[in-house]
Amino acid sequence: MAGSRFLVLGAGGLGCPALLGLLAGGARRIGVVDCDVVDATNLHRQVLYDLGDVGAPKVEAATRRLRERSPGLEIEPIPLRLDERTLSSLLAAQSADTVVLECSDQPDLKFLVHDLCGEHHLPLVVGGVQRWGGQAMAVRHGAGACFRCVFEGAPPAELAPSCAAVGVLGAAAGALGFLMAHLAVALDAGDDVAGTLIALDLRELRPQQIRPGRRAGCPGCDPHAPRPAQGPLGPACSTSAAAACSR
Ligand SMILES: [Zn+2]
Q1: In this model, does residue 179 exceed pLDDT 50?
Q2: Distance from the CA of 221 to the center of ligand 1, in angstroms?
Q3: THIF-type NAD/FAD binding fold domain: from which residue to which, for each copy (predicted)?
């Protein structure tokens, strides 16, 4: 496990606690991808940053903070705006021992990451948070259910509520980010977590674990089903200028 690589897509509300959770779980090689800058309005749930980081690229601030905690950490900041082309190139360049953590705030990007990880034979953990809770799912394509067995696809962009509109409880993002890190480390260790979805609602304080069966005709994992259609990605939830992006 010590040599495995973890690729964290998104260094915001889920990505910050996921990165800390990876450190706590013993990860020594991490790549972190984001093209946004630290915004003062999100500091309550983006727990790696403080006021001194406002305006700095998130990948640079996150890298600095993680190195302070773990000087021997091998961490690669990747300032990249993710779309189908850049994501496919990024995943194709990953070593076979990479585990991907999808920590963005874009529902359609989660499905794109999921599908491309299948094409590139990379295990992943997909997380999502809204209001008081959310869910995290460990996926190893070919072993158990995939994300599309549970969620067929992202809602149309015009129907998907934005983070700003619905709000996100900082503690929910923190709990789910750490849970994502735990699932990623477990996937890497070969534990029997592939196909497991854990849902958490901090109002109820009752986590739920489900292990759905594979869905016949699922476009994400049934080799006889047509591949899922992927339209252009909708806008991200973030509000700050994308000063750190490259393409
Ligand atoms: Zn499936």
Answers
A1: yes
A2: 4
A3: 4-218
Q: Give the Cα separation of 95 and 120 in Å (integer).
A: 10
Distance from the alpha carbon of residue 212 to the mean position of ligand 1, in angstroms: 10
CA 110-112-92 angle, 5° bins: 115
Question: What structural domains and CATH numbers belong to the chain?
Answer: 5-245 (3.40.50.720)
Helices (H), the chain: 15-24, 58-69, 84-92, 107-119, 147-150, 163-166, 170-189
Question: Torsion angle, CA of 94/95/96/101, rounded to 10 degrees?
Answer: -50
| pTM score of the predicted model | 0.91
Q: How far is CA 152 from CA 11, 88, 106, 110, in A?
A: 26, 21, 15, 12
Using DSSP, state whether 83 is helix, strand or coil: coil
CA distance 91 to 134: 25
Enumerate residues with CB within 5 Å of ligand 1 (an ion): 146, 148-149, 218, 220-221
Determine phi and psi for 111, rounding to 5 degrees.
-70, -40
Split at pLDDT 50, 70, 90, the class of 240 is: very low
- Are 128 and 179 in contact by the 8 Å Cβ rule? The answer is no
